[in-house]
């Protein structure tokens, strides 16, 4: 450890805050908070939403619902646009919903990658609707995809974009990231009283003054973030984005070849960072267990209404095509074992074809 | 990294939550939050203090003032008991202050070790006053000393005791700890609406259900905390406490021998974890710089009204008597260089005498 008020730490933080700017597609240094992704979500609420404000939350899964819950805990009138889980929100759906509201809306919340379903919402198209139909702030949760997908806050018309360290940004959990544009900064300045640790003014002011943090930062994780920025630079940001698309395409091609249904049927709605698989019957748990028991390979379970119905394959951050080959091989062996089918090589073959198209 | 919803992580968290119980002197598992120490302070405010509540904050330095600021940001009427910086709060002072208030007090806040001055407040004696004179909750900031000083929430009548990972608990920053007793749990259940990430009910309920966290925990730091608990067990908790007393006594004896004034004059008010030195004139900065330039040794500056007037020597966590010998040797060389005095060996000699008394 080094002292967190030292020049060496300040330099590291400066690297992270500025080198993440293209990754978030922002023109302002990215704010770093010690906390889980949820602390970033809450900061995007408690700094701009006043008690009694009307807000719209696009709910496509667990994390859209979390945004709604946070808004409710701060006394907002929450209008949920509930979308069937496994499907992305269409811009037309949002437009119709917004036009149906009587009260002016303070903010519209959306989830970029809804990690609970592996849907990637079309946040650019949704942003265009928000700005055409309302004067609302547009606030996006990018926790499970930023670092693996393109983001351009100006082009997408996003005012606040938040993320966490432990997904495509390849770090252990414990760092939250918040990118705000100039309009959001103004709203934050005039935000509610009841905030202290998550008061973004404190973080923004600390950058203006000396590139430091208002409260003791998680030094080891910031050092890690500096290395992550270096890795992204080394690979090239465009190549990182392309690699994630390849990983998604390989995964989907392989899973389909195995005859396992994908939760997200529409290719255009599928996240480049995670893929949810919905096997027939109750096999999700059995497949997850087989992978764990035989290969110490961890896939994630479903959450809430999808509990027991899906498993999710993460393919983000430092994941490579060979990692996808490995998980598909493991799936071939699991399906062979559980269903007695001749599966060896069939998923890998399709994944290789999907990979070759990009090489 | 491992999946944070895995059994291996749950087991690690369970170890940390229970093995820290004697360190906090609590009968309940210690809550772990991803955040800075200030997030722990805020959790102790926002879960129990309602808008309009009257609260008392004992302010003996920067971190007492921080408690007061947090309470104000949540709309409390804050009654500050301001104590001269460098001095501990006497129980009689608190008793007189509390008896002078007209309104019933919801909570009394105190700082165990005020790290900005290196004062250790007599939190047990203050607790006795709080409970004799009021019905208030008694809430203590133990960030810069828990893990290096005794704590017994029942005996000291503390309802909420908070700390952080990066001081005497020897970890990188990024973990906040909160210990609550049964009475505090009740208050937290009936706490204000406007909280989500720092809503302690969520953390307490997660322990009751499956020993997990409501939001993604900082896995690497929790693994570190497990090792910290093992180290404390290995040394023996009583020995850890004794070692910190020895470190303080050695440091104070050595600094005095060098003719450098201590900010905390009264030995009984001095923290076992940190010692503030207040050299005559403007030498604090010069000494700090000498240590940094010649030995890459970092002592901390003064904060706020003590800026430029003091430097602070940390002697906590994994610090050993030999670390104190080293910093005193460095100070001897600094004072020799800056003042031309024959200082070699004189601080070390006194420190050895203080050490010998405990060996």
TrEMBL record, chains A, B:
Task: Please provide the record's keywords in A-Z order.
Answer: Aminotransferase, Pyridoxal phosphate, Transferase
Positions carrying N6-(pyridoxal phosphate)lysine? 167
Signal sequence span per UniProt? none
Please verify whether the record's keywords include tRNA-binding.
Answer: no
The UniProt entry, under PROSITE patterns, shows: AA_TRANSFER_CLASS_5 (PS00595)
GO biological process terms on file = glycine biosynthetic process, by transamination of glyoxylate
**Per the entry, which co-factors are needed?**
pyridoxal 5'-phosphate
Q: Which residues bind substrate?
A: 312
Pfam families, per the entry: Aminotran_5
Q: List the InterPro entries.
A: Aminotrans_V_dom, Aminotrans_V_PyrdxlP_BS, PyrdxlP-dep_Trfase, PyrdxlP-dep_Trfase_major, PyrdxlP-dep_Trfase_small, SP_NH2Trfase/AEP_transaminase
Q: Which GO terms describe its molecular function?
A: alanine-glyoxylate transaminase activity; L-serine-pyruvate transaminase activity
Give start and end of each Aminotransferase class V domain. 3-304
Q: Can you tell which superkingdom this protein's organism belongs to? A: Bacteria
Which family does the entry's similarity section mention?
Belongs to the class-V pyridoxal-phosphate-dependent aminotransferase family.
The identity of this protein, by name, is Class V aminotransferase
- Origin organism is Heyndrickxia coagulans
Kindly list the organism's lineage.
Answer: Bacteria, Bacillati, Bacillota, Bacilli, Bacillales
